Amino acid sequence: MKIGLITFHFAHNNGALLQCFGLYKYLESCGHTVEIIDYRPPYHEQLFVKNPNPFVLASRAYKEYSDRGFIYRAFRYIKRVIGVIAHYNDEENKKKGKQLTLWQQFVSKHFVLTRKYINIAELKSDPPVDDIYISGSDQLWNPFLTNYKPDEAYYLQFGDDRIRKITYAISACMLDVDKYSEEIKRYCEVLDGISLREEEKRAEIEKNVGKAVEICPDPTFLIDVDDYCQIYNSVNIQDTDYMLVYLMQDKEGDHNNIDLVQKLAGKLNVKCIDISMFRRKWNIEVEEHQGVFVDEYLAYIKNAKYVVTNSFHCTVFSANFHKRFITLPISGKSSRTKELLELLGLQSRMVNNNNTALEVLCEQINYGDVDIRRKELQKKGRDYLEMYLS
Q1: Mean pLDDT across 321-345
Q2: How far from 104 is each of 97, 100, 110, 276, 304, CA to CA, in Å?
């Protein structure tokens, strides 16, 4: 069977690449011919290119403040244009250029892509010819990532009606079902199967579209842990006596997280390595490696003695590689990680109280039980796909 996947395959985000890799490689291992539908709308792609178009990014700022008056929105638009241009030659843009090169190398090695599409009109006029389309996984139904409205492409509003269309483990936690009720109901009419990654919006969407919604694990669970070796096996990290830090930006919690990491590093008397995407001001000696690509990202997790993170996918691979780790909550965005930890029987690893962080981080984990739960999740995801691919 020939399968077309549509997802955030072009984002310079390690979690986005790994979820794409997991689904692609599993389908390929089942004997299917797989291609990624190379859909890269400017509103999203421009976030990852060197010297982006300032007017495209400024339009995002204008839409972001849709609840404010015209003058305020115009001010934000102009401010964003100036800000984008002002950063054309800074270190962040140089890093984007390097990431783009690494991404291109990764894609050429592991994936087959269709021709490039930049909008839904192109997909409708000249759709890829496949037996089945799969939308997923990642946050494809998060309007804040799709130009502040649902993007038809990620609801598979293209292609012949005879082509089977399903979603796999879509994360819809940030989707306002009431606000976009009419669009969601209309878009989901063409879907033969709907699968979400979290329970959070399941009942709302089922009620809205009048169809059953399945819950499936993140695609990174579809393949075995050893299958990721082909990504990181060329990275040589000899040091294993370090605490790895990978923290997503959290304006409300950053100061508290920095303070906690510094206390943990002091009490554990280990080197601290920070591979977060954003640079932070540390009051201790920290080895920083901003912008590591997916191969180094996995290698740093695999070799760490301890891991401190607030990232969903870093949590996934900390458990996959049997690490001692703690997961810190992100303000208003931790439901998906909390649900994952509960499914793996690791709910105690979510630390809300700094006073217990050291005790939890040092606690041994019974990974025999965790691996059994992981296999159960894997089977659930595989069974869902097999139901539509058979």
Answers
A1: 90
A2: 11, 6, 10, 22, 28
CB-based burial, 211-224: b 16+ in 10 Å, e otherwise: eebbbbbbbbbbbe
What is the Cα 149 distance to its own chain's centre?
19
pLDDT, one tens digit per residue, over 178-215 is 999 999 999 999 999 999 999 999 999 999 999 999 99
Q: H or E segment at 116?
A: strand 113-117
User: What pTM was computed for the model?
Assistant: 0.92
Dist. CA 191–CA 78, nearest whole Å: 40
Whole-angstrom distance, CA of residue 318 vs CA of residue 325: 7
Residue 125, amino acid:
S
- Residues near 84 by Cβ (< 8 Å), separated by ≥ 6? 52, 54, 57, 58
238 token code pair? 């000899």
For residue 145 the two structure tokens come to 């990532």
